[in-house]
Design a protein that fits this description.
13 helices; mainly alpha; about 290 residues; Farnesyl Diphosphate Synthase; globular
């Protein structure tokens, strides 16, 4: 396998829709408000992608350093743990990508004000502290909150704010909804790795509260995703928004598949569908908003 292929795999391409979709939603709402501006929207997209990749690199490096990625792992291989990339290399590029992300985020200050500096600092630091620092979020059951807050509420909210100068109830509702759907990707991973995480003292929400809790969280995200387009239609948005019910209902049906998953292939299939749900939900909702 070539070095380029190894590094592309290390970015975890299947997770990147989690960075793109919130920006798409925030921008579609700005378009509906007749205030869409492609420059800040594009900067938000690059910032989100870099933070996602930087988080993935940091997670790869830090999990290996803590011994959390063991031979018992049944999920996708990790570059550092398997020796494909040296720890020092991954650490360097994780920090580099996050620093570049921060620099990119500074370009949003003229559009949204200096308070965005605090958001940028918090986003970049949290990307590292997700699995690093003295109290790593992912190791203490706080990873889900991190995902919903930063990849949902903050990502959608800030994308909309830098284009319009305000934040509305629709923005918060969509931010929460997509954040919950994106968190389902984390739920699947943590559900799959529960035994390994427990043995390495990685106290994810699934380790702390159990698999039944994880299935309930996954189902709640699907139910929320069903309610949101209905609320938006009642508020006057186009009925085409209801096409988003297709992936939303699919999320509810995925709960049974997740509960029955046992092999690496089973979990990979659930993860793929969960990623499809995030992307398709974002596309259907965004299209409905733009049309309405």
């Amino acid at each position: 396998m070539s070095k380029i292929t190894i590094w592309i795999e290390a970015t975890r391409p299947k997770t990147l829709p989690a960075a793109v979709t919130p920006v798409l939603l925030g921008s579609s709402l700005a378009h509906a408000a007749e205030q869409f501006a492609w420059q800040p929207a594009f900067i938000c997209l690059i910032f989100a992608l870099l933070v996602q990749i930087g988080t993935n690199f940091a997670n790869d490096y830090l999990d290996a350093a803590r011994g959390a990625d063991t031979a018992a792992r049944i999920g996708p291989r990790r570059a550092v743990a398997t020796g494909l990339i040296r720890p020092s290399q991954m650490r360097f590029y994780a920090i580099t990508v996050l620093v570049v992300a921060f620099g990119c985020g500074l370009a949003l200050i003229p559009y949204g004000g200096w308070w965005l500096l605090a958001v940028g600092i918090a986003s970049v630091l949290s990307a590292w502290l997700y699995t690093g620092g003295p109290y790593p979020l992912a190791y203490n059951g706080l990873g889900d909150i991190f995902v919903v807050f930063f990849f949902g509420l903050i990502a959608v909210g800030c994308t909309y704010y830098v284009q319009t100068g305000i934040v509305t109830s629709e923005v918060l509702l969509l931010g929460l909804t997509i954040g919950l759907l994106i968190n389902n990707l984390l739920i699947v991973n943590n559900y799959r790795d529960m035994e390994e995480d427990r043995s390495t003292q990685k106290r994810t929400s699934v380790v702390r509260f159990g698999r039944v809790f994880a299935l309930r969280v996954y189902r709640f995200a699907g139910l929320t995703a069903c309610v949101t387009p209905c609320v938006l239609v009642v508020q006057g948005y186009n009925y085409s928004l209801l096409f988003a019910l297709i992936p939303a209902v699919a999320a509810i049906f995925q709960v049974k598949r997740l509960g029955a998953a046992r092999s690496a292939v089973d979990f990979l299939n659930v993860l793929k569908v969960s990623g499809w749900i995030v992307a398709s939900y974002g596309i259907f909702v965004s299209a409905g908003i733009v049309l309405g």
